[in-house]
Every structure is written in structure tokens, then in C-alpha cells.
User: Fold Small EDRK-rich factor-like N-terminal domain-containing protein from Serpula lacrymans var. lacrymans.
Amino acid sequence: MTRGNQRDQDRLKAQKKAAAGKSKPKESAANLQKRKEADAEILRAKQKKKEEEKAAADAAAAKAGGG
Assistant:
């Protein structure tokens, strides 16, 4: 009757996995908000840089094509 043993082993494995997940500390609302704001600022900076690069490339293409 190996199936019963396998079920028990799987149950123990699942319990260990669930216990490991619970040990992580929860992020507080203030820290979460700060992290979200920091991430948003980083994304805005990246987007601004991309737009500047695109504008520079468009300007260069206009110069080369217009001459």
C-alpha cells in the first residue's frame, strides 16, 4: 500500500513548504508605498531617457535627410 505512504509524504512536504512561506516578514503599508513611489520614479526616469534618445535620433535623421 505505497499510495497511502506517498500521500503522507506529500502532505508533510506541503506542510514544510507552507511553513517556510510564512516565515517571511510582511511588508508594512508605509514601506510598500515608499517602494512603489521609488519604482515609479525609476520608470519615469527611464521613460524620459528613452524619449530624449528618440528625439535625438529623429533630429539626426532629419538633419541627414534634409541636407
User: Anything to note?
Assistant: The CA atoms of residues 60 and 66 lie 10 Å apart.
